[in-house]
Amino acid sequence: MLTKLHVFRLTQYQKIIFLDADVLPIRPISHLFNIPHEFAAVPDVGWPDIFNSGVLVLTQGQEKFGELGELLKTKGSWDGGDQGLLNEWRGGDWHRLSFTYNTTPTAAYT
Fold first, then answer.
1. What is the pTM of this model?
2. pLDDT (tens digit, 9 = 90+) per residue, 4-30?
3. Do residues 43 and 96 lie in contact, with contact meaning Cβ atoms separated by under 8 Å?
């Protein structure tokens, strides 16, 4: 479940758009490379104060990967996976993307 964290090790890129395998873009998303934020995600459908880790826009960094590894050792993940760990790591320090970047046709924002 934590293999997603290796996206931070892709140091050959300036900005990364990460999509889970079940995300299907229906419009171009290249404009996300131009957002001026270090970390952006979509609020979770069930808990809008946290983000869902299915769509992420981030700047990479080996040091960030290291911070996540240390956090995993010391606190763990409150949901047992990457989403809990990433939310613990970022806290409230993330840019909110539109809910429409990671939704299903039957979902309702709460």
1. 0.89
2. 999 999 999 999 999 999 999 999 999
3. yes
